[in-house]
Amino acid sequence: MCKSIKIKLLPLLAIILTSCGAYFNQPYQPQNARIGELTSKTQVLRELPNPHEKIIVGVYNFKDQTGQYKNLEAGSSFSTAVSQGATTMLIQALEDSKWFTPIERENLNNLLNERNIIRSTREEYRRNANSNQPTLPPLLYAGILLEGGVVSYDSNIITGGAGARYFGAGASTEYRQDRITIYLRAVSTSNGEILKTVYISKTILSQSLDASLFRYVAFQRLLEAETGFTKNEPVQMAMKNAIESAVEALIIEGVAKGLWTTADGGLKNKQLMDAYKAQKEYEESQLLYDRDYVEPDKKDALSLGLTAPSLSGDLPNQEFGFGGFIGYSKWLSPKLSLNFDFDYSYLTGGKSFYEEYMSPELNLELNILPYDTFNPFVYGGAGYIFEIHSPDGEQTKKVSSPKAQLGAGLSIRVSDRIDFRIFGESNFIFDDEIDDVINGKRDDFIYTFGAGIKYRLGKNKMDFKISEDNEK
């Protein structure tokens, strides 16, 4: 089901408001070491319900698979774009969740060497002191291996900014967004089956803001002032957040598949899966750049709206009249629809001209972004316009003529069923008598601006399914 439209502020305003905290808390002296910061997902992991039984997992190497180095504006860098400590972050996330018992596998050789040293030392002591030392306990073995890694780091997926300067005073802002992507999979050590795979992406924001003043305040007295700052979201924090989100997703999707369960079972499992499913449906309903994505299930709609037509003919004064329309739409594909409209127009012009017209129209409409909340569209087609009323009975022959129309507009999804639409249209009339005046070779035109709603005759459906087991 489509979520409510999010109110999105302009990028400039958003950057200024969210950056004030960094500007007014600038560091002026060295800071002491501190415990690492938590992400928004850390507390979510810690608050997950307890498992029925902890799962012993091994992580050999959750590594950077991108091989990408940091981008610099000038020159090159041999520093990697992402942290090489992803395995350590994953183990910490597993501990925070309380669902797993991670065992050491990343530096297994070190562990085995140390155990060999312990055995040798005990053997020597046993021979010299004739004592019975206990044998070294066996290593734990993992029932599940966690594999995967950082598979992508995309720089500058979106950049932008804004600025203004007037009379020596101005300000500007810039922003840049990168994106990190990780995959995490659970593998059974008994038969090698891949039990579950999850995929998580996280954006990384960098932004800057500066303001300056350059002005002569008196003769030979120049005032210059400048301030600003740059704030970069730490890549390590973004990576930690993505890994913690992957662990959360792996736990809940494992519950949905029946791989493991909470200590309370039944109702608690359902609550956990329902909350996750709602979040997953919302996140999967968004395209790149946080664009809302909804795929309509039904193919029919009714339209209703008001218009302001303006006659461009042979009369000296062009004025806006009023009108309305009702229509029916049939989708041929997600981007194409066939629209049949019936329009009413009250046209005015000059000092005494006013007449009423009706026009049936058939249009083919192209939707530029059919799955987005904001969808620009263009359309064109043909129709027929005919006069239905002439004042004072002055005209004995009513005007009628074929016509063609081209238009463009913007559709805004208000709810699952309703779209709000605004548009502008040019009507090419193959007649010069619409305004009751024939002058020159140019036919009359009608320019129309309008707004209305389109009501979908069915439910919108987004088919997201965690697993077949969850539907039972």
Describe the secondary structure blueprint for this structure.
Elements: H1 11-23, H2 40-46, E1 55-58, E2 63-64, H3 86-97, E3 100-103, H4 108-129, E4 144-166, E5 169-188, E6 194-218, E7 221-232, H5 235-257, H6 266-284, E8 286-287, E9 291-292, E10 300-312, E11 322-331, E12 336-349, E13 353-367, E14 374-389, E15 400-413, E16 418-429, E17 445-456
Parallel strand pairs: 1-3, 1-4, 2-4
Antiparallel strand pairs: 4-5, 5-6, 6-7, 8-9, 10-11, 10-17, 11-12, 12-13, 13-14, 14-15, 15-16, 16-17
Write a structural description.
This protein is α+β, with helices and mostly antiparallel strands and 472 residues long. The protein folds into 2 domains: 37-105 and 142-292, 3-Layer(aba) Sandwich (Rossmann fold), CATH 3.40.50; 300-456, Porin. It is 20% helix and 42% strand. The protein has an 8-stranded antiparallel β-barrel. Strands 1, 2, 3, 4, 5, 6 and 7 form a 7-stranded mixed sheet that branches. Strand 15 (400-413) and strand 16 form a beta hairpin. Helix 2 packs parallel to helix 5 and helix 5 (235-257) packs across helix 6 (266-284). The chain starts with 10 loop residues before the first helix and ends in a 16-residue tail after the last strand.
Describe the structure using short key phrases.
2 domains; disordered N terminus; Rossmann fold; 472 residues; disordered C terminus; 6 helices; seven-stranded mixed sheet; 20% helix; elongated; eight-stranded antiparallel barrel; Porin; 42% strand; alpha+beta
Architecture of the largest domain, according to CATH? 3-Layer(aba) Sandwich
Oligomer: single chain
User: Rough shape?
Assistant: elongated
Number of domains: 2
Radius of gyration, in angstroms, nearest whole number = 34 Å
CATH class of the largest domain: Alpha Beta
Please bin the fraction of helical residues.
Answer: 10-25%
- Biggest sheet character: 8 strands, antiparallel, barrel
Strand content: 35-45%
Separation, N- and C-terminal Cα atoms:
20 Å
**Major beta sheet, strand line-up:** 10-11-12-13-14-15-16-17
Nearest-integer average pLDDT: 82
The computed structural class is alpha+beta
Number of strands: 17
Q: What's the CATH H-level homologous superfamily of the largest domain?
A: ABC-type transport auxiliary lipoprotein component
Quote the CATH topology of the largest domain.
Rossmann fold
Order of helices and strands: HHEEHEHEEEEHHEEEEEEEEEE
Quickly count the helices. Answer: 6
